Amino acid sequence: MPARRLAPAIAIALALATGGRAVAQDRAVFASPGAGSAVGLLSEIIKKDRLDARHGLDLDIKYFDPAAAEQAVLLRRADAGIFAVIAAARANLAGHRVRLFAPALVNHSSIVVPSGTSAGGLADLKGKRLGTLDRISMTYTSLATIARLQGLDLERDFKLTLSPPPVLMGLFARRELDVVVIFEPLVTRLLAEGNREVLRVNDVWRKETGQSMIALGIGAHEDWLRAHPETARRIFRTLRDAVAVVQKQPREVVETFRDFLGAKTDDQVARLAERLPQLYPATWDRPLFDAMTLLLRKNIELGLLQELPKDALFVSVE
Question: Do 91 and 10 share a structural domain?
Fold first, then answer.
């Protein structure tokens, strides 16, 4: 799937809007997952360090559970925000011209069970009470892909509960779920409480394809991107700066935001400081577009996606 560049539109719009003068501060509403999430951490860094202001941007961050953040973008309750790659393809096939214009995350979901459970893989959990996020989310769409790769059907072969992360964590703690599929940093918290990680979704994908699963991007409707090209560029650069902060000083970041991340012990801080820098793609380029397209093509092969969107799903605003 070719990527489309919006750079010419940006140049024209910027020239007309500014006449060569300094650009006034832009404002945009950004849908972000909240506490206990890796993208939410970027949002917190942006506001603490005023990274948005450095780029002439006032980013009005609205916090949701991950699935609701994607719905906010889809329903235009936010200008931009997180959007799962597979869900974005489905939205386009349904007539919603959502475009991904910045990277967000490598898949960082894990399958977690109580310590006494002997399961060695997803197939061993067939028929169990499994909790995960709503169907639009990265967590669900990625898990459905992995399940189908292993000859399983997520909807038919498990007793599903689809809920926001706090609800899933509570149900699992009360053992009303046999297994929970959740993301970092919540995985670290569950392991610290004595539970066991059966597998990481990204590890299964890497074994299958030799690549990391780039499963989440930053999305917006195409008409908004065309009407606000410079704002989109500023969002892109602001997020890039926040990722650089995590990658350059992960330990300091986790210590600073340990309450937001839910890191209660020094061991949890150390584990998150090791894992978090690996979760954020550092580029938005052809190899990344190809990796995301591979994920979509595999979903078509597995019968989880009808076809590729006819228009470019991934666009560059740089």
Answer: yes
Regarding whether 134 and 15 lie in a shared domain, the answer is: no
**In the block, which residue shows the tokens 């979903």?**
299
Q: How far apart are CA 56 and CA 54, in angstroms?
A: 6
State how far Cα 262 lies from the chain centre. Answer: 18
- Per-residue burial over 204-242, b if 16 or more Cβ lie within 10 Å, else e, is bbeeeeebbbbbbbbbbbbebbbebbbbbbbbbbbbbbb
Q: What is the pLDDT of residue 10?
A: 38
- Residues 102, 218 within the same domain: yes
Which of 187, 209, 231 marks a domain boundary?
209
pLDDT at 20: 39
Q: How far apart are CA 290 and CA 217, in angstroms?
A: 14
Q: Which residues contact 161 (CB under 8 A, 6 or more apart)?
A: 129, 130, 131, 132, 168, 171, 177
Instruction: Specify the number of domains making up the chain.
Output: 2
């918290």: which residue's tokens? 189
> Which of the 8 DSSP states describes residue 115?
T
Structure tokens at 89: 């393809």
Report the phi/psi class of residue 180: left, alpha or beta, with left for phi > 0 and alpha for psi in -120 to 50. beta
Q: Based on the domain organization, do 102 and 227 belong to the same domain? A: yes
Q: Specify the pTM.
A: 0.89
What pLDDT was estimated at residue 93? 97
Range of the domain at 50: 4-106+214-316
Segments of the chain scoring below 70 in pLDDT: 1-24
Number of separate helices (H) and strands (E) present in the chain: 16, 12
* Distance, CA of 174 to CA of 166 (rounded, Å): 13
Q: What is the CATH number of the domain that holds 228?
A: 3.40.190.10
Cis peptide before 185 (omega within 30 of 0): yes
Is residue 279 located within the same domain as residue 290? yes
